[in-house]
Write the structure tokens for this entry.
Amino acid sequence: MRHRGHLSEKQRRARSELARIVHDQAFVCGSLVTLSRLCGKPGCKCTRGEKHVSLALSVRIRGKRKMIHVPKALEKEVQSMVERYQGIKRLLDAVSQDEMERFLEKKAETESPARS
């Protein structure tokens, strides 16, 4: 494993947090969607305008968007998993931005002597 001394403190913290989350906690790449619909049964409350509300997890499986029903008992757990993924994505973006800046600095250094 490469020594991380060349990284900024900010980037070391982001990478450590990222590794900890990915290693220790469940996450899912998706979004939660609230669905409101009618069941069609005569006399049901939904025929009077009170639609049935449920939560679905929107994910991509083999390149296709799928909506997976989330049971009431699992709503908080799934919400946490989606939020964790969003945190992972933010950390990855921060690390990527730092790496891009380092790349551009190295690129400028390599191009400068050639033009002299």
